[in-house]
Amino acid sequence: MGCTVIKGASIINEGKIFKRDLLIENEIIKTIAKDIKVPRSATVIKAKGKFLIPGAIDDQVHFREPGLTHKANIATESKAAAAGGITSFIEMPNTVPQATTQDLLEDKFTIASKDSYVNYSFMFGGTNDNLEELLKTDPKKVAGIKLFLGSSTGNMLVDNPEVLEKIFSSTDMVISVHCEDEQTIKDNFQKALDQYGEEIPIAQHPIIRSAEACYLSSSKAIELAKKTGARLHVFHLSTAIETELFRNDIPLKDKKITAEVCVHHLNFNSDDYAKKGTFIKWNPAVKTKNDQGALWKALLDDRIDVIATDHAPHTLEEKQNNYTKAPSGGPLVQHALPAMLNFVDQGKITIEKVVEKMCHNPAILFEIEKRGYVKEGYYADLVLIDPEKKWTVTKDNILYKCRWSPFEGTTFNNSITHTFVNGNLIYDNGVFNEENKGKRITFNR
């Protein structure tokens, strides 16, 4: 692999910005210093005027493989992730078949070992009847447990209270949950159906999948976690009221209950349905401006710990259906970091905070080994950003297999120019290294 020297970058790490050179040797960050003497055989990247950050870690994606590869696959979506500065992902179990046995889970790891451009892990999926299999999950080799407490696919809705308590009581692994109360949603949907018939307006989505549905489910999950001592992580908060359930008075490493917000809930609100339609149909729904503002407040005051994508592509044909038939979800990994950096330009968040929430905190939360930081001895998962190179999202530069994005037409004020994964330059100004692949993430547990 040889070595690479990155010269003169402004490194962003642990709340500080400092200009240094960085030496990559094989897979590892070997040296960070003011003026590194370039070894004779080294590749040199001149990075004056650019930011160098740790590769982002996306703790929630749906890459659709196996079984749903008409929408996406691990190769296409991990390639898009690399272009977007995401060097590690954690993928969800609701594929076909679902990753609800250890053998099926390992099948996904095998696919990723051959096809993923970036580092990877997968969550084991809990159901009402697979506790014995769930408890076989190796905490050093698997990211965690995923439970659907609403909006599940197949048989993955875990709605048996006794089973839930057993799961929460039986594992020390991170239990990540999707929280929406199914009965509330069903009742709201029936009201909309009675009023509008099959032509329910998209603007009804946050009313059907209401704040009440979210809060009812998430508050119950948190109550159960407190009762059992479980390590709970609540995915994709979308409401103001839910943010009040979380604390910011202790360090992340000491928290037993944590929270995530997704890029789309920070970028869009219910006013945007008129223009974006079903292209911003997600579960949980994009909600009001007030909810959006409360999410930002909780993110900045550290009640919300992580920014993720919930990347969940569907085909353009599927998304162009009317409200009742269009599936929820959308592709985001290529554009999430640029979108957050646009907020930096607007003064809404600092770049140091973006790095904290997208790089450091996922590593802390999931106890990921030697990733998420720019540190000597850590894997060289690194991203170079040109803060002054603007570009506009068009169909021609979208890398997702589905070939659409809710950000189409958006101009970003920054460009990701280089992405390193385990010391390999995977992405270089639009050109991909097709030879090297990512590694299985391991965990300090």
UniProtKB/TrEMBL annotation:
Source organism superkingdom: Bacteria
UniProt keyword list: Hydrolase, Metal-binding
EC number: 3.5.2.3
Top EC class of this enzyme: hydrolase
Amidohydrolase-related domain span: 51-425
A Pfam family annotated for this UniProt entry: Amidohydro_1
Molecular function GO terms recorded: dihydroorotase activity
Coiled coil, from the record: none
Function: Catalyzes the reversible cyclization of carbamoyl aspartate to dihydroorotate.
Family membership noted in the UniProt record: Belongs to the metallo-dependent hydrolases superfamily. DHOase family. Class I DHOase subfamily.
Annotated protein name in UniProt: Dihydroorotase
Provenance organism: Wenyingzhuangia heitensis
